[in-house]
Amino acid sequence: MSFQLNLAINPADLQALIDEGQQIVLVKSTPLQTSLAWLCLPPLANNCIQWNENYYIYAQMKRVEVGAQIRMDYQSAVVPGLYDFLPFGSFFPALNNPQPNIYSISNQYTQQPYITVGLAQPIRLNGSLAMVNPMLAYAVFPNNTITFRPVNQVTIYLSNTVTTSQLIANELPANALSIDFNTAHETNTVYDPAKGGFVLAGL
Predict the structure, then answer these.
(1) How many Å apart are CA 142 and CA 170, to the nearest integer?
(2) Which pick of 22, 42, 97, 115 has the fewest CB atoms within 10 Å?
(3) Is this structure's pTM higher than 0.70?
């Protein structure tokens, strides 16, 4: 199943955003106290973002603090299920009867106090080749298992301090726009200078 987000900015507003160094930030929603900047992109008159509900799991060999960028040391395309992260640094499927839309990682790597694991998702910008960008991040201790269920909700806002794959606090701006793509596979938005953010087109 494919999804598409269209972002439009009137020419009168576009130059002001460029002069301010603003970027458009997309975040996949999470119940945690932190989020990941799934994609940061420069403002253009029209941007088209596309993705499918396909996922990768990844591991980074250290804990990531707020403000740092995720570096996916190991990654693997997966279907729902339980995966062991093995001592020699690779993922191996460990469950034959997974639940739909549930992904779990069991950390069998015992050489460090903890690692960072999570989900990544391919995303296409303006028809380009898909980029596999992290969208969730969790610290997990050795011999522990963490489970996550991705949510197909995207939050959009502007920032001149955030970059792609950066771990950010979950206190998003009040003018951020959240869109639930479980109810609409394509959504059109437009920049509203009065709000200082994006709104649904036609409202």
Answers:
(1) 26
(2) 97
(3) yes
